[in-house]
Design a protein that fits this description.
heterodimer, A: mainly beta, five-stranded antiparallel beta sheet, 11 strands, B: mainly beta, seven-stranded mixed beta sheet, four-stranded antiparallel beta sheet, globular
Chain lengths: ~110, ~120
């Protein structure tokens, strides 16, 4: 099955810093989503982005489907950005999301 | 904005007991899913449900698990005889609806944290 790899596994930032999270996948995808898991365990939808670029406030994402990767950019990070960021994809004729292992982000004041 | 809701938020049960986790999907959504996340691990697919039947299930989803839409609105996951290793966060997700730009996007509920003692 498709493999989803995220990097880095852990990231520590000072408030105000920028960061880039990466998601590589091993096959073509029909769907790619980015999620933020907050400290209470909730999965918050950030982007639905099987291809192209989207922006939402301080966050933006780019998926280059032909090269099988997606990037999540966080600018001017805040302590509330802390948590785990997951990339998840759907490949082939299935509808199930396959999740990466996540990037654990800690933003310090 | 419409959202997926799940109840209860936390369930504690004894090993061998039956539990039912409930989800209310976003109205007009057609596809329903259950995922689980063991503490500290990645989110794993359990089962997908469409048109009142299971469309796909993972190896985890054995005979101890079942799903149904008992009243056309709620979507439930039943674990018949819980084991210690069933302790996890269980997420319901739904997909579909009337908005073409987000038809393929899955929306997750807040989760039910199941603890089996």
């Amino acid at each position: 099955g498709i493999q989803v790899e995220q990097s880095p596994p852990d990231l520590i930032l000072q408030e105000g810093a920028n960061s880039t999270l990466r998601c590589n996948f091993s096959d073509s995808v029909n769907n790619l989503q980015w999620f933020h898991q907050n400290p209470w365990g909730q999965l918050i939808n950030l982007f639905y982005i099987p291809s192209g670029t989207k922006q939402n406030g301080r966050l933006s994402a780019t998926t280059v489907a032909t090269e099988r990767y997606s990037l999540l950019y966080i600018s001017s990070s805040q302590t509330t950005d802390s948590g785990v960021y997951f990339c998840a994809v759907i490949s082939g004729g299935y509808n199930k999301l396959i999740f990466g292992a996540g990037t654990r982000l800690a933003v310090h004041p | 904005e419409p959202e997926v809701t799940q109840t209860p938020s936390h369930q504690v049960t004894q090993m061998g007991q039956e539990v039912i986790l409930r989800c209310v999907p976003i109205s007009n959504h057609l596809y329903f899913y259950w995922y689980r996340q063991i503490l500290g691990q990645k989110v794993e697919f359990l089962v997908s449900f469409y048109n009142n039947e299971i469309s796909e299930k993972s190896e985890i989803f054995d005979d101890q698990f079942s799903v149904e839409r008992p009243d056309g609105s709620n979507f439930t996951l039943k674990i018949r005889s819980t084991k210690l290793e069933d302790s996890a966060m269980y997420f319901c997700a739904t997909q579909g609806g009337l908005k073409a730009s987000s038809y393929n996007e899955q929306f997750f509920g807040p989760g039910t944290r199941l603890t089996v003692l």
